[in-house]
Design a protein that fits this description.
- This protein is of the alpha+beta class.
- It has 14 helices and 23 strands.
- It has a four-stranded mixed β-sheet. The chain has a four-stranded mixed β-sheet with strand order 2-14-16-15. It has a four-stranded mixed β-sheet with strand order 4-5-3-13.
- The longest helix has 13 residues.
- It is elongated, with a radius of gyration of 21 Å.
- The protein binds uridine-diphosphate-N-acetylglucosamine.
- The site of uridine-diphosphate-N-acetylglucosamine has 21 residues, from α1, α5 and α6.
């Protein structure tokens, strides 16, 4: 396992370009299975999770050509309809490929997905929706086999606005017979991005970005070329990196509208933020103030930003209260930050943080993707040296985070593991 070694205390300053969105790229890459044709994708981040998704696409028979500028996928020659277990376990979002395979071939075999250690991550909502679409599901030795003769549009009311389940239903029903209506659908910008791409491919979908999405099945989809939206969680991470170091940073290729609650909370904590359509500029006070955070589905405060702003609040003046409403196990990072001097108490889904003036460098271990990012941020602000271990988690979701931080003036070095 590799580590980042960080010498804290540098105020970040300068401009940083935000990469393409990880969470939009994954379903969009999966969607390239549906057209049985060519797809050109721009702005896909070169990170572990997109690499794994492309590896699975190659395994099932897609031809994939990757350059620094674009990824070309040709899905005409798919021969396999199963996703290998060892790749499925590497990341949870591989489950999205099931929806696309079922949508095109009316069959898919996969196992329960892996992913971050942030709580139970069931797929019951995905499977229940597949059943409602007329898909027959058999489970055997941990494998899930989905098959049907045809997919018939129906009404699906989600018990919770799950991002993955909403995406899977869309992917499985774009080529269905008749109309599918999703109520209590997720409204995240990544869903809107996926739908924009599918519409460019010829899909008939409306209501994306609202709680009711309607998908009118079409017979065929066509070639497409699409540019993925910027990563709103990476944008939020760099805003918090500036905030925790008392820095001044401008984000290029970032959409403020996608992270309104993050911007508001940072302003409430004492940061000055200026926004343009595609850029965000932050200037942080030397010491920030405590705030209260509650994670919610979009447009609420994103759970993926919880641990990252948590690192900022650990050094803010006063008592901050964080309520995590989406994943039950997302406070593990706090026990690592505690090694650096953070003071907190956890009661179920609530963390009460008493801000300390200074953190001290220490050896900490990434617990998951966003937890790892929060430790990097803590290291940037800490006195002395911090070693963040297990950064493989971080590399799953951030493109060149060390290089981007170095460019802003941070002292961060990669120490490769065995
Ligand atoms: C996606 C994002 C992840 C983000 C999350 C919530 C990707 C690749 N990942 O994950 O970064 O943190 O949205 O914004 O886009 N649930 C069930 N049954 C299901 C599905 C979900 O009970 O079948 C529960 C989950 O346990 C969780 C909640 O619903 O408590 C939200 O999960 P969901 O929105 O599905 O998250 P993901 O799509 O996995």
């Amino acid at each position: 396992m590799s580590s980042y070694i960080i010498k804290g205390g540098k105020r970040l300053n300068g401009e940083v370009k935000i990469s393409g969105s990880k969470n939009a790229s994954l379903p969009i890459i999966a969607a390239s299975i549906l057209n049985g044709s060519k797809t050109k994708l721009y702005n896909i981040p070169d990170i572990h999770d997109t690499q794994i998704t492309l590896k699975i696409l190659k395994y099932i028979g897609c031809r994939v050509k990757k350059t620094s500028e674009k990824i070309e996928i040709d899905s005409r020659y798919i021969t396999k309809k199963e996703i290998p277990e060892h790749l499925m376990r590497e990341m949870r979002s591989t489950v999205i490929l099931a929806g696309a395979l079922i949508g095109r071939f009316k069959e898919a075999t996969f196992s329960y997905p892996g992913g971050c250690d942030i709580g139970a991550r069931p797929i019951d909502l995905h499977l229940k929706a597949f059943k409602k679409l007329g898909i027959n599901i058999e489970e055997e030795y941990g494998l899930i086999r989905c098959k049907c003769d045809k997919i018939t549009g129906t009404n699906i009311d989600l018990d919770f606005p799950s991002v993955g389940a909403t995406e899977n239903i869309i992917l499985a029903s774009v080529l269905a017979q008749g109309k599918t209506t999703i109520t209590n659908a997720a409204k995240e910008p990544e869903i809107v991005d996926l739908v924009q791409m599918l519409k460019k491919m010829g899909a008939k979908i409306s209501g994306e970005g609202t709680a009711q999405i309607e998908i009118e099945g079409v017979q065929k989809l066509k070639e497409v070329s699409y540019r993925v939206m910027p990563d709103r969680i990476e944008a939020g991470t760099f805003l918090c990196a500036a905030a925790i170091t008392g820095g001044k940073v401008k984000l290029i290729n970032a959409i403020p509208e996608h992270i309104v609650p993050v911007i508001s909370k940072l302003e409430e904590a004492g940061c000055k933020i200026k926004t343009d359509e595609n850029s965000i500029e932050i200037e942080a006070a030397k010491r920030l103030k405590a705030v209260e955070i509650k994670t919610m589905p979009y447009p609420g405060f994103p759970t993926d930003m919880q641990s990252i702003i948590g690192a900022v609040l650990v050094t803010a003046k006063g008592t901050s209260i964080i309520t995590e409403n989406i994943f039950e196990n997302r406070f593990k990072y706090l026990s690592e930050l505690n090694r650096m001097g953070a003071k907190y108490k956890q009661e179920g889904s609530v963390a009460i943080i008493t801000g300390v003036k200074k953190l001290l460098g220490a050896k900490v271990k990434s617990t998951d993707l966003r937890g790892g990012a929060s430790m990097i941020l803590a290291g940037l602000a800490a006195r002395g040296e911090t070693q963040v271990e297990n950064i493989e988690y971080v590399l799953r979701g951030y493109e060149n985070i060390d290089k981007k931080l170095s460019k802003l003036g941070a002292e961060i070095k990669l120490k490769e593991g065995d």
